[in-house]
Structure formats: structure tokens, C-alpha cells
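Before surveying the methods themselves, it helps to consider a single example record, giving the amino acid sequence and C-alpha cells:
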Amino acid sequence: MDKKENLGIVDTKFFNLPQGITLASGEKLEPVTIAYETYGALNKEKSNAVLILHALSGDAHAAGLHEGEDKPGWWDAMIGPAKAFDTNKYFVICSNVLGGCRGTTGPSSINLKTNKPYALGFPLISIGDMVTAQKALIDHLSIEKLLTVVGGSMGGMQVLSWLVKYPKAVRSAIPIATALKHSPQQIAFDEVGRQAIMADPNWKSGNYYDGTHPDSGLAVARMVGHITYMSDISMEEKFGRQRKNGVGPFKFTADFEVEGYLRYRGDNFVKRFDANSYLYITKAMDNFDASAKRPFHEVLSGQPVKVLAIAFKSDWLYPAYQSKEIVKACKHAGIETSYCEVDSTYGHDAFLLETEEETHLISHFLKSVSQKRGKT
């Protein structure tokens, strides 16, 4: 096997759609800018393109390093030479979602009609709208059919939306730790995060861009979210009941290591994410229903795609039964489907951390998809 290497310095590119896109609501959003990165090279047949779809807090920077930074992209362990998405074989694409705040048009973008940030004037968006924007980017790159679409958590929802909206544009799909639609518990956690943001006096009904941002509310939202990403076992192993400064006088400070960790996570998140984007994106997740109120197997029926679904045993935010529902629907629709439930203690975060197991599964899956294409 080739030696695994990092991609080195990469750049974020921008694709502009002056005509914008028509949203699922019927509203027209224009213009639209999409931030994206690519790794590897597109072959002559344009048959080796892989689209990576990020989760709630992700962005287009999936791998490599940006100039002057030492933190690699969020899935760097999976993308590069001899990795799961081998850039010696595949042309890998990742874009920031519509409604985001890392280069793609979202609530913090300037509304050309007012010359001010959209704020809550930004239209309500859906997971399907995110995929519509991605399809425009893929068309811009002159790719008719993607080898695969892959993503975890909200990224997995986008994978399912690709299967529904553009089934002829994908050869295979890899939904990881995701769901056909949110359960009441998943909606409840998102609502707590939204309420934390909107309760911050600096939120000002979304109109905070020319002043102090609602950092406290957004930090609390991230803290709540991060608790759901971990498992009881992983928290016990990482923190236990360990104190930061030993046992001292009673006070409302971060006495326990886990408290300090959550505050650190929250404080760092506000440096790179927009509170309004958090509101819009979590609402899009909660409103998502892959089946559009029809049996999902009916929606998928007759599609010539191949699916690999991955779940994690300790994931209580997106429990394995939700992935099994996807697998059941795919098989009922006659789609060739594989399922793997990884024995991990990392909870929902496992899709970002169990890279060795995922590499094994995904590399073999992509090899079989490529071989199947060669026989047709």
C-alpha cells in the first residue's frame, strides 16, 4: 500500500451563482456563493468524484492545511494518499452548506437589497436546499455522476437527500450515524440550543452583527450539543470526576475537568461560528424527512445505487436503530446495501474518531463500486 501522506497546503475556492437558487419554500435566494475545496484530480472520464458532506459545525475545509494554520481539516485522517478517500484515485470535493457561515451564503452574508447582513431576513432553508446548491456546484465542475456521496450526522441527511433528489447523479452513497428524520429527543436537544442563543440579550432578534454577538448563548448551545456527541463511557474515561484544582471552597466555577472542557469547547466555537447559522441549520435538520411522508423504500424504488450504512454502538444521539431503518428501506427497495455497526465507546463523535475502522469499510466499498462500474 502507498504511504499515507498529508495533503499539505490547500485553498478554499468560491463558486458564484448570480441567478441564485429556488428554495423548497418557493422563495428565490440570489445571488448565492458556495465555498468549497477539492483534493486529488478528476480523471478524464470524470468518474472518480467523491462528495464529502459535513455535519452541523463543519465546513468546506475537510482536509489539508490552510496557509499559516496548524490545524488540519475536520476529516483529514480520511482524505489523502492511501487513506479512505485516496486522492491518488479519487477527486474529493467538500463544500460549506447553504445557510452556513464559512464562505457559503447564510444569515451573516450581505443582502444586496439592504446592504446589511440578512440576519433573520434570510429565508428558511432545508437539507434539500443545501443539496440543490451542491448539485449546482457539481454541474459547474462538469461532473455528471458522482462515484459516491458520504457524510455523517447532518452530512448523512444530505446523503439521503441526494438519493431522493438526484438519484441518477450518484453511483453509491455512504450515510454514517444519521437518520431518516429526527426523533422528538433529537428535536428537543436542538431546541434547547436555539433557546440558549435567543435568550442571550445580545442576540437582539438576530440583529447583532454591528455590535456584541450572543457568544454566551451560542457557547451554551455548543456545550449542550457536545454532551450529546460523547457517550457516558467516553466521558468517564476522559474526565471521571477529576477536579481541576483539587477540593476547595464551594464555588460556581469549573471545578471538574468536564466543566472546564465544555467551557473550552463553547468558548472556541463562538470564534468560528455564527449564532444565526446555528439556528437556521438546526431547524433544517429538525424539519428534515427523507421520505417526504411516504414510505422511504417507495421513494428509493428502482434506483441503481449501492449503499453502505455505518452506525456506532455507543451513539445515543443517532442510535443504531435509525441507521437500521435506512438499511431496511434500502433493501426493501431492492438496493444493494451493506451495514456495519462499529463497536466504539466514543458516542456520536465516533464518526470523526474511528477513522481506522471507517477506512477499512469505506476503501473496500469504494473498490467494489468502482469494479461494478467497470463491468457495466
Observations:
- The domain at 13-182+288-375 is CATH 3.40.50.1820 (Rossmann fold).
- The radius of gyration is 21 Å.
- The first strand starts at residue 13 and ends at 17.
- The mean pLDDT is 94.
